[in-house]
TrEMBL record, chain A:
This is ABC transporter ATP-binding protein. GO terms for cellular component: membrane protein complex; plasma membrane. One of its GO terms (molecular function) is ATP binding. Pfam families: ABC_tran.
From TrEMBL, chain B:
This is FtsX-like permease family protein. It is a multi-pass membrane protein. Residues 289-402, 678-791 form the ABC3 transporter permease C-terminal domain. InterPro entries: ABC3_permease_C (IPR003838), MacB_PCD (IPR025857), Macrolide_Exporter_MacB (IPR050250). Keywords: Cell membrane, Membrane, Transmembrane, Transmembrane helix. One of its GO terms (cellular component) is plasma membrane.
Length: 238, 798
């Protein structure tokens, strides 16, 4: 493991304070993720997986601890800075796809490029490429509601990758899909990872976790075990 | 079930506080405006309604020919009132009265200037039964030295009304005994201040004896309404038999008559020489329309907000249907909800009206104590409004909401679409179009008012004081006026003094003249004012030819005239000086024009400057004084009052400043402008409240989308622009629609003025930009709130 670190967290904590209760979602997480890795985060419901992923994705900020992204400490970065890092480096895939209902597939996929200020011609080229890679080019003018779940998730992955991010964060990407479409999505993520993109994925499914290099097990907001995926590593070593 | 509906409704209203507040405030203001307009309308239409048998009391109005001139007048000709009941049995009773205008009514202790002093024959109370508080109507005007007072005047003079009866009061040079006190609260267009017998003054005799002149105001009570139309013809025949047009000093060559029901008299502003008060129905229309608009805008808010949040109610509807409710029942429920809202809004509106009543009373001169004790008419009006809002505004949301099928709503996790977005957009555009037209209107009206104020009037109205001279018998009056003019003049603060029967702004009287045209004398009716020496100098008016009146030229008091340029132009004279002119009644050969004055505004800026004849009369009219600039007013007036008391002891010095009284003719318009501005602003406030609610639902509905956009890198600015952009487009469309409407409406309005401001682009730009700015400000609050919420929360929410 001599690769450059993409993410490094120290004693990451997250507390949610509501009117009456204080929930500790993360209770001191130390995690390092290198460039090019494929990491799966597993654990029972409510153990803090999504919370961790959102912090790694700069959607949320920790209550305590530190967080370095590409060697830069961004624990206390402003919303503006975080938005900038987000649109330049990150892609998101959600369990519920989170496509915008009022926009067509093509417009949905083009959105990150619009926020990056990419020219129209360039946007069209890259969106077409992304759609073709995901096999949904023939659906470009459809609205999300008109697609099947698998197609929607492929559109979401296309959107997550269209800006060529260095890190893709996926929160239970197969949660709403049947097993055939689930395997399809996992194959796509693996393909992206093999092409050099770092992938961090939250999942319940042991079979999905099999695709990752490393599995992080979370329990009550803490990492309990970190396993290297022997089969994957073996394949890499070969 | 009803209870269940009520509970649900109340909980919904309480839970969605912003939604409820927007609807309640908007509807309450709209309803309150409608109620006020209704009260106002009711007041304006109630004039003369309280006379017994008002439906068969008629005023005889006349259409008088003077050569090729036609005059519509509220007065009638000659002794009709005397003759009609004798000649025609269908006339039950008749009376004639004249209005002597304002004068002082006094006791030894105090004096009060009273408007509309009426001289009437003794039949007046059998036709017009003004309610007597004390006294006997059938004998009140029988004795020549009797007077009937209003309760207001009697109260001021004598303290109690009972004490007034039989007491002496003085008017001009005579003493009268109070024979009755009437209650003047019920509105009547005659609006008498005091009523005296017609025959005490021999000078007024010709009003009721001369068949060839315009006489008094004649009122008839007929046995049956149906008699009115045929009687008109009969009166015309009678006139033709009795009149000898060749002998008419007023130059009357013919006349026809109309019987106008007394309840129509007040709102008839076409007739010349109205009796007392004349109403203006145009304002009622304008405010009626504005109140309607307010209600419409508030109803649109209700429709928009109810459908926008329909997604939230869909589950409830689905549930109700699943357990067996029919669509009709669901519709019923939502209609009930809107009616309930309208009822609560009405209660608030009644409270609002109650609070604004004092203001309303000062504007209308009405004395409504409270609207909380509903009159049956007001109750009906309220009921109509409640049903209108409840059913018209409530039905679209009700039909829309009741469409959700239970299967769709309950099975899928999808939230149903929130109503017809296009309809909502259209309604918002309609709201803003209305607001914009009103706001542009306000700006134009304001601009016109300023224009009117700054127009050169042709005279200097500052520092001029006018003082009414009490009628104390014409010999004494003349002497005192001459003396007091002299004495005032000696005060160091006084520049000049003169007298005038009509001051600028008070108009003129029509005079009939024979004038030289192509070496012949032609007859013409021309506006005339009577003024003293030095009037032109005092007013700062300029001569463009000839000379001013001079005390050194003896003949100036006899048929020497100064005309304005408009008159000279109309007569086509190249040189006006020494042209012949004389009143038709005068038996003289040497009337001449001695000067031409530059045009000045002697009526109002509504009308162009008409031809004018100025005649010299140094003996009568108001006393006019020009003060030095920057004189301390209080001290000067008190010096003047010291002198006044020597000549008119017991009479208050009733003075006014010319600039103020000239300005007063625009007071009605300015009052209307204030009200107009207020309502125009209200419409935009209510429209923006709706927008606020709509924006909040829009933001709520788009929470997920906003979350996604932020996750993908959209900045706060991006999101705010995205959300406000939609609304901005709507306002821009409204601007495009409003400009031509406002342009047309205001251009039409400005045609009423002879001196008018130009419509200009800035008025429209100001209104448009203002509305846009207010709308964006309203929406951006919600947009900013939405754009700064945590995207993680937004996406978790499902
Ligand atoms: N916005 C929030 N407010 C309060 N508690 C929260 C919030 N988000 C998450 N939690 C709590 O934090 C814990 C971890 O949540 P989460 O990270 O969503 O779990 P997981 O994704 O592993 O199921 C849970 O107990 C959850 O109830
Ligand atoms: Mg989760």
């Amino acid at each position: 493991m001599n690769k450059e670190l993409l993410i490094e967290t120290k004693q990451l904590q997250k507390k949610y304070v509501t009117d009456t209760v204080e929930t500790t979602a993360l209770a001191g997480v130390d995690l390092q993720i290198a460039k090019g890795e494929f990491v799966a985060i597993m654990g029972p419901s409510g153990c803090g997986k999504s919370t961790l992923l959102n912090i790694l994705g700069l959607l949320d900020s920790p209550s305590a601890g530190s967080f370095k992204f590409l060697g830069q400490d961004i624990t206390h970065a402003s919303e503006r800075q975080r938005a900038k890092i987000r649109k330049q480096n990150l892609g998101f895939v959600f369990q519920s796809f989170n496509l915008i209902d009022e926009l067509t597939v093509e417009e949905n996929i083009g959105l990150p490029l619009a926020y990056l200020g990419v020219s129209k011609a360039e946007t069209e080229k890259r969106v077409t490429e992304a759609m073709e890679r995901m096999g949904i080019a023939h659906r470009r003018n459809h609205f999300p509601q008109q697609l099947s779940g698998g197609q929607q998730q492929r559109a979401a992955i296309a959107r997550a990758t269209v800006s060529s991010p260095s890190l893709i964060l996926a929160d239970e990407p197969t949660g709403n899909l049947d097993s055939v479409h689930g395997r399809e999505v996992m194959a796509l993520l693996t393909e992206l990872n093999e092409a050099g993109t770092t992938v961090v994925m939250v999942t319940h499914s042991p079979s999905d976790a099999e695709y990752a290099h490393r599995i992080v097990n979370l329990f009550d907001g803490q990492i309990v075990t970190e396993n290297l995926n022997v089969r994957k590593h073996a394949a890499e070593l070969l | 079930m009803l209870k269940n509906y009520l509970v649900i409704t109340l909980r919904n209203l309480l839970r969605n506080k912003v939604y409820t507040a927007i609807n309640l405030v908007g509807l309450a203001v709209g309803i309150a405006s409608c109620l006020l307009i209704f009260l106002f309308l009711q007041h304006e239409l109630s004039y003369d309604e309280s006379f017994k048998d008002a439906d068969r009391i008629y005023r005889v109005t006349s259409t008088v020919q003077k050569g090729d001139q036609t005059i519509e007048t509220a007065a009638a000709i000659g002794p009709l009132a005397q003759l009609l009941p004798q000649e025609y049995p269908e006339v039950e009773s008749a009376t004639v009265l004249i209005n002597m205008g304002q004068n002082a009514i006094r006791t030894d202790e105090q004096a009060f200037y009273t408007d509309n002093i009426i001289y009437a024959d003794s039949n007046i109370f059998s036709v017009l039964d003004f309610p007597f508080i004390v006294g006997n109507p059938s004998t009140a005007l029988k004795a020549p030295a009797s007077i009937v007072l209003t309760s207001e005047l009697a109260g001021k003079l004598f303290g109690s009304l009972e004490a007034a009866l039989g007491k002496p009061v003085k008017y001009i040079a005579s003493t009268f005994l109070v024979t009755g006190v009437i209650d003047q609260t019920a509105p009547s267009h005659i609006n008498p201040g005091a009523i005296l017998p017609l025959h005490f003054d021999a000078q007024t005799e010709y009003y009721v004896t001369d068949w060839n002149g315009i006489g008094g105001y004649t009122y008839l009570k007929l046995h049956k309404k149906e008699h009115a139309a045929p009687l008109q013809e009969k009166i015309a025949d009678l006139y033709d038999r009795k009149a000898t047009p060749g002998q008419s000093l007023a130059g009357i060559t013919g006349a026809t008559f109309q019987l106008q029901n007394i309840t129509d008299a007040y709102l008839d502003k076409e007739k010349e020489a109205p009796v007392g008060e004349v109403g203006n129905i145009t304002y009622i229309y304008i405010f009626g329309v504005i109140a309607g608009f307010l209600l419409l805008i508030a109803s649109i808010n209700y429709i928009n907000l109810a459908t926008a949040r329909s997604a939230k109610r869909a589950k409830e509807v689905g549930m109700r249907k699943a357990i067996g409710a029919s669509r009709a029942q669901v519709i019923q429920q939502f209609l009930l909800e809107s009616v309930l809202l309208a009822i609560v809004a009405s209660l608030l509106a009644l409270m609002l009206v109650e609070l604004t009543l004092p203001l309303f009373n000062t504007v209308t001169g009405k004395t409504i104590d409270s609207v909380l004790i509903l009159s049956s008419e007001l109750g009906m009006a309220l009921l109509v409004i409640v049903l209108f809002i409840g059913i018209v505004a409530g039905s679209y949301p009700a039909f829309f909401l009741s469409r959700f099928s239970s299967a769709e709503v309950l099975k899928s996790n999808q939230t149903p679409k929130s109503g017809n977005a296009l309809l909502r957009k259209g309604l918002v555009v309609a709201q803003f179009t209305i607001s914009l037209v009103l706001i542009t209107g306000t700006i134009v009206v304001y601009d016109q008012m300023m224009h009117v104020r700054n127009t050169d009037l042709g005279f200097d109205k500052e520092q001029v004081v006018a003082i009414s001279i009490p009628s104390i018998g014409w010999v004494k009056q003349k002497e005192n006026l001459a003396a007091i003019k002299q004495e005032f003049r000696r005060l160091p603060q006084v520049v000049l003094t003169t007298n005038a029967q009509q001051l600028p702004g008070e108009g003129a009287v029509k005079g009939d003249y024979l004038l030289e045209q192509n070496n012949r004398l032609v007859k013409k009716s021309i506006n005339t004012i009577s003024v003293g020496y030095e009037y032109l100098d005092l007013m700062g008016m300029k001569l463009s030819a000839g000379r001013n009146y001079s005390k050194d030229i003896r003949t100036d008091e006899q048929f020497r005239y100064i005309l304005n340029e408009a008159a000279v132009k109309e007569l086509g004279w190249s040189d006006a000086i020494d042209k012949r002119i004389k009143p038709t009644w005068a038996d003289t050969a040497n009337g001449t024009v001695i000067g031409v004055v530059k045009d000045f505004n002697y009526t109002s800026l509504h009308s162009k400057i008409e031809p004018l004849v100025i005649q010299l009369d140094p003996h009568f009219g108001k006393l006019v004084v020009r003060l030095e600039a920057n004189t301390p007013l209080a001290a000067t007036l008190s010096d003047m009052e010291d002198i006044w008391r020597k000549y008119f002891p017991g009479y208050p010095m009733d003075y006014s400043f010319l600039d103020e009284s000239f300005h007063q003719q625009y007071q009605a318009e300015e009052k209307m402008l204030t009200i107009f501005t207020f309502f125009a602003l209200l419409t935009i406030v209510i429209a923006c409240m709706g927008l606020f609610g709509l924006a909040s639902y829009m933001a709520e509905q788009r929470t997920k989308e906003i979350g996604i956009r932020k996750v993908l890198g959209g900045s706060v600015t991006d999101i705010v622009v995205l959300l406000t952009g939609n609304f901005a487009t709507l306002v821009v469309i409204a601007i495009v629609l409003a400009v031509p409407v406002a342009w047309y409406a205001m251009d039409t309005w400005l045609q009423n003025f002879a001196y008018r401001t130009e419509l200009s682009w800035w008025q429209f730009v100001a209104a448009g930009m203002g509305a846009l700015a207010i709308a964006l400000l309203t929406v951006s609050y919600q947009a900013l709130k939405a754009a700064t919420t945590d995207p993680v929360k937004a996406l978790r929410a499902e």
